[in-house]
């Protein structure tokens, strides 16, 4: 599933070709993705000018001068294609501007598209309970210490809880815990403030590195320009079961709630 770096990369790739452009045509090639497209989507977007781009958690935001914000989620395999040579069967929504054509491609249709009044985006139901952005100023060791206090749940499970921190996914949590040398199965409430400081730094480091590399390529993910993300080449622990760790131990894999966790029991405590 595209995670925060993939969505951030997508938004950054779309911004140069969308911001300031007027949408001249909206074409829907089916009635839904994971859920139906918003009623009146084409009418509300056609003729609107894109005034801003952004991201919240794993959602991309496209603001218009009509006071609407298009909110998209890439689901399991979604991506935007810029100026495709031809429209394919999985290009379910196409936006055209004066200069470009953009196709939202989603073979598995687990993505979603919503149109929300810009003034109400912060109060939009999926956003209300979200925790702070991991790259923002409100995400820090004090925040984690407050939410982890007396918690016996594993630290990895809590970091994947979008109410604790928004946008973190399985790959990047595994990588960050490895960098911080914290066991993914350690009880969150037992982690010291000093180690939480290191964890916050590690989370930011791994996300920023992934964004610079264009995201991680898992199955079908690619950036809007068609290039693949290359952060997978930099994985320190994810997907490396049985390989040696720099500490002399071996990377192990465990499965919790259907998710694979990769870690080194020797150096992650």
From TrEMBL:
Specify the Formamidopyrimidine-DNA glycosylase catalytic domain's residue ranges: 2-111
- Record organism: Sphingomonas kyeonggiensis
Tagged with keyword Phosphoprotein: no
Enzyme Commission (EC) number:
3.2.2.23, 4.2.99.18
Summarizing the function annotation, the protein's role is: Involved in base excision repair of DNA damaged by oxidation or by mutagenic agents. Acts as DNA glycosylase that recognizes and removes damaged bases. Has a preference for oxidized purines, such as 7,8-dihydro-8-oxoguanine (8-oxoG). Has AP (apurinic/apyrimidinic) lyase activity and introduces nicks in the DNA strand. Cleaves the DNA backbone by beta-delta elimination to generate a single-strand break at the site of the removed base with both 3'- and 5'-phosphates.
The entry's free-text remark on the cofactor is: Binds 1 zinc ion per subunit.
Known partners and oligomeric status: Monomer.
Reading the lineage from the top rank, the first entry is Bacteria
Query: Know the name of this protein?
Result: Formamidopyrimidine-DNA glycosylase
Q: Which PANTHER family match?
A: FORMAMIDOPYRIMIDINE-DNA GLYCOSYLASE
FPG-type domain: residues covered: 236-269
Family to which this protein belongs: Belongs to the FPG family.
Example GO BP? base-excision repair
- Catalytic residues of the enzyme: 2-3, 58, 259
Task: Enumerate the transmembrane spans.
Answer: none
Q: Which UniProt keywords apply?
A: DNA damage, DNA repair, DNA-binding, Glycosidase, Hydrolase, Lyase, Metal-binding, Multifunctional enzyme, Zinc, Zinc-finger
Q: Which InterPro entries match?
A: DNA_glyclase_Znf_dom_DNA_BS (IPR015887), FPG_cat (IPR012319), FPG_Glyclase (IPR020629), FPG_N (IPR035937), H2TH_FPG (IPR015886), Ribosomal_uS13-like_H2TH (IPR010979), Znf_DNA_glyclase/AP_lyase (IPR000214), Znf_FPG/IleRS (IPR010663)
């Amino acid at each position: 599933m595209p995670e925060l770096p993939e969505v951030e990369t997508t938004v950054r790739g779309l911004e140069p070709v969308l911001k300031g452009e007027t949408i001249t045509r909206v074409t829907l090639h089916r009635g839904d993705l994971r859920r139906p497209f918003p009623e009146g989507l084409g009418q509300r977007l056609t003729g609107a000018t894109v005034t801003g781009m952004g991201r919240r958690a794993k959602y991309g935001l496209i603001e218009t001068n009509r006071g609407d914000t298009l909110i998209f989620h890439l689901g399991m395999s979604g991506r935007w294609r810029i100026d495709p040579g031809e429209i394919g069967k999985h290009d379910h929504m196409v936006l055209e501007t004066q200069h470009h054509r953009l196709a939202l491609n989603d073979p598995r249709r687990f993505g979603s598209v919503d149109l929300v009044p810009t003034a109400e985006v912060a109060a939009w139901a999926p956003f209300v309970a979200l925790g702070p952005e991991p790259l923002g100023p409100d995400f820090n060791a004090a925040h984690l210490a407050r939410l982890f206090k007396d918690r016996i749940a594993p630290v990895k499970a809590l970091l994947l809880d979008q109410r604790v921190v928004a946008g973190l996914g399985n790959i990047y949590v595994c990588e960050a815990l490895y960098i911080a040398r914290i066991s993914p199965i350690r009880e969150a409430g037992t982690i010291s403030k000093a180690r939480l400081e290191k964890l916050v730094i590690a989370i930011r480091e791994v996300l920023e590195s992934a964004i610079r590399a264009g995201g991680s390529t898992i199955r079908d993910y690619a950036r809007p320009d068609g290039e693949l993300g290359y952060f997978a080449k930099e994985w320190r622990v994810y997907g490396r079961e049985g390989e040696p760790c720099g500490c002399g131990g071996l990377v192990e894999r465990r499965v919790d709630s259907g998710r694979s966790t990769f870690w080194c029991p020797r150096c992650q405590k």
